[in-house]
Write a structure and sequence with these properties.
The structure is a single chain. The chain is α/β, with parallel strands linked by helices. It has one domain: P-loop containing nucleotide triphosphate hydrolases (Rossmann fold, 3-Layer(aba) Sandwich), CATH 3.40.50. It is 55% helix and 12% strand. A five-stranded parallel β-sheet has the order 2-3-1-4-5, sandwiched between helices. The radius of gyration is 17 Å and the shape is globular. It starts with a strand and ends in a 6-residue tail after the last helix. The protein binds thymidine-5'-diphosphate. The site of thymidine-5'-diphosphate has 13 residues, from helix 4.
Length: 218
């Protein structure tokens, strides 16, 4: 089973990923947590290129680098894990590309769809949790997470985070469109209490597992 988490930076995905991993592990599932970009030696190098502030990357270059990182992770790690019936929890997948490079950077959505399908070998998540938050609230969270004072220097944020509030608003709008048009999306309010969110997520996972009849213990 492939479970993905999506949302703009600062939405609190990693907290929910950790809680879900703990829950599934305690219920006797083999669980593998991965995040994009990264996860293999080559993909981690691509991650550095993408996030370091010193590089000026074109939108197309950015798209292809995120996609190259994804292709490495899917082929080397995700597909073999799924074959062993490991539950894979992925912090970002190609919906991030659609939201950030498509809606955020303005690249052609049909082209993106083809590249996403190639990079992910046609893999589609069983369920996608989208944590929705306004860019303003997300930025406040990010500042407190990184202990950045309000009078911050731009270079304390990574290259993507330096894209501005307008960019993040477009990304959020893109995610909302994806959530509207894809049944696998579960739309959640990222400002809910983390434990309340966790319970909602578990409820969806339990019904998905019982629908797939992959487990009787959960
Ligand atoms: P990361 O530090 O992992 O952010 P987060 O904790 O919010 O997931 O940085 C990944 C950044 O890359 C983030 O700003 C989202 C962006 N991104 C894209 O623009 N396109 C993509 O396809 C992916 C996977 C990530």
């Amino acid at each position: 089973m492939l479970i993905t988490f999506e949302g703009i930076d600062g939405a609190g995905k990693s907290t929910q990923v950790k809680k879900l991993k703990k829950y599934l592990t305690e219920n006797n599932h083999d669980v593998l947590v991965l995040r994009e970009p990264g996860g293999t030696i080559v993909a981690e190098k691509i991650r550095d290129l993408l996030l370091e502030n010193k590089h000026d990357i074109t939108p197309i270059g950015e798209l292809l680098l995120f996609s190259a990182s994804r292709a490495e992770l899917v082929q080397h790690t995700i597909l073999p894990a799924l074959e062993k019936r490991t539950v894979v929890i992925l912090d970002r997948f190609y919906d991030s590309t659609t939201a950030y490079q498509g809606y955020g950077r303005g690249l052609d959505l049909d082209v993106l769809q083809s590249i996403n399908a190639i990079a992910s070998s046609g893999l589609v998540p069983d369920i996608t949790f989208y944590l929705d938050i306004s860019p303003e609230d997300a930025l406040i969270r990010k500042f407190s997470e990184k202990s950045i004072p309000l009078a911050f220097e731009e270079n304390e944020l990574d290259r993507m985070e330096n894209s501005g509030l307008g960019f993040y608003q477009r990304v959020r709008d893109g995610y909302m469109k994806l959530a509207e048009h894809n049944d696998r999306f579960v739309l959640l309010n990222a400002c809910d209490d983390p434990q309340v969110l966790h319970h909602k997520i578990v409820k969806h996972i339990v019904s998905l597992f019982s629908a797939n009849r992959t487990s009787t213990e959960i």
